[in-house]
Structure formats: structure tokens, C-alpha cells
């Protein structure tokens, strides 16, 4: 399976998952590639293989050439019909005219102010517990929430954490008035199991590795 074939398969199945949810936000792709400086050190090489209609969350975690890489990803996104969010760094997102910002759970409170200042930005955030998810509503400024880990994941934040599984993901979606995406351990081998889970889409890291 070529990279493009694999990525198209993931997008097709993510669309199937998203279509079960109504209404859908047309600004939100059903599939997001989450970058990671260690696991995907050259995200631009992955982005050029991604089919139109996907999203990228560029998480630089302070890497040295973040601005240059973000600009390159912005160009690739514009040329190929992709949506680009910048992880946590709204200053960089505005500087390169990205489509939005993805926030850590600890930064969720920033969403309302960002939305008020820049209502056109797509704002998403990580959410790791039911209490936080239940407290969020459509006034939070967020467009969507990413819950994780759905399945066992190589992410450092997922180590020692019991995966939600399909049933756990479904329970989390029932708590939220916002679209909920799944993240963590999702790939070609298990994405089909998420149809009917209530998720509005998925995010992945390792599923996009070259």
C-alpha cells in the first residue's frame, strides 16, 4: 500500500465515521495528522502525500526551526487543499495565517478569548477526562475536542493510561455538546471499529509515518 493509498483509506473511513454525526462543521476535516518532532521529524514529507480534505496539527514543542517549518506546511496546505492548525502557538498561527490553533487541555480557558479576538480561527483542544469535557459548551470558543488515547498509543502522554476503547469513546461523545474527535493509536487496522462510536472524526500520528 503506497503512502497516498493509505492516507486516502484513512480519510475515506474517517469520513464514514464523521457522516454518522449531524450536523457537521464544514470547516472541520474528518481526519487530522498530528505532527510530533520525534516520531514524525519531517512532517512536510508526509503532508505532500495527504489527500485534499485532510487537516494537519503542527505541534513544534519549541523546535528550533518552527517558523520556517510552519511556513512550509502552510504552503503545502494551501497548494493541496489541507487545513493547518498550529499547536498551542497562536502567535505563530496568526503570523503565518494558519487556519487555526490546537490547544492543550491546560490551555482550554484561552479558547474563548482567542475566538473573541479572531472568530475566523478554527480552535480545537485536547481533553483527557470526562469532567473537563462535560464542562465545555458551545460558548467555549472551541470548534471541536480531541479525546485520547482511544487505543494504546506510543505518545508519552498516553503511557500508563488505560485506553478508552470504542465504548469509552462513545461514552465521552455523549457528554459533549461539541464535536469530539478520537486520537491515540488509531490506524488502518482499527479505524473501522470506530464507525458508530459518535466521533466526529479522528486524529493520528503513527498512522501517517512514512
UniProtKB/TrEMBL annotation:
Pathway: Cofactor biosynthesis; thiamine diphosphate biosynthesis. One of its GO terms (biological process) is thiamine biosynthetic process. SUPFAM superfamilies: Thiamin phosphate synthase. InterPro entries: Aldolase_TIM (IPR013785), ThiamineP_synth_sf (IPR036206), ThiamineP_synth_TenI (IPR022998). It comes from the Bacteria. The keyword Phosphoprotein does not apply. Coiled coil: none annotated. Residues 66-207 form the Thiamine phosphate synthase/TenI domain. One of its GO terms (molecular function) is thiamine-phosphate diphosphorylase activity. Keywords: Thiamine biosynthesis. One of its GO terms (cellular component) is cytoplasm. The keyword Lipid metabolism does not apply. This is Thiamine-phosphate pyrophosphorylase. It comes from Asticcacaulis taihuensis.
Amino acid at each position: 500500500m503506497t503512502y497516498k493509498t493509505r492516507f486516502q483509506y484513512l480519510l475515506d473511513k474517517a469520513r464514514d465515521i464523521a457522516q454518522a454525526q449531524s450536523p457537521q462543521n464544514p470547516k472541520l476535516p474528518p481526519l487530522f495528522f498530528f505532527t510530533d518532532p520525534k516520531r514524525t521529524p519531517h512532517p512536510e514529507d508526509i503532508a505532500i502525500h495527504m489527500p485534499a480534505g485532510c487537516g494537519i496539527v503542527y505541534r513544534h514543542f519549541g523546535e528550533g526551526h518552527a517558523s520556517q517549518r510552519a511556513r512550509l506546511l502552510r504552503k503545502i496546505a494551501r497548494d493541496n487543499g489541507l487545513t493547518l492548525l498550529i499547536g498551542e502557538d497562536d502567535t505563530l498561527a496568526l503570523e503565518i495565517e494558519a487556519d487555526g490553533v490546537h490547544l492543550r487541555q491546560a490551555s482550554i480557558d484561552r479558547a474563548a478569548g482567542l475566538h473573541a479576538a479572531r472568530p475566523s480561527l478554527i480552535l480545537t483542544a485536547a481533553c483527557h477526562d470526562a469532567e473537563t469535557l462535560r464542562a465545555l459548551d458551545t460558548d467555549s470558543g472551541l470548534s471541536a475536542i480531541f479525546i485520547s488515547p482511544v487505543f494504546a498509543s506510543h505518545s508519552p502522554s498516553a503511557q500508563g493510561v488505560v485506553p478508552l476503547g470504542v465504548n469509552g469513546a462513545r461514552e465521552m461523545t455523549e457528554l459533549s455538546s461539541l464535536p469530539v474527535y478520537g486520537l491515540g493509536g488509531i490506524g488502518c487496522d482499527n479505524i473501522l471499529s470506530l464507525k458508530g462510536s459518535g466521533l466526529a472524526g479522528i486524529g493520528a500520528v503513527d498512522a501517517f509515518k512514512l
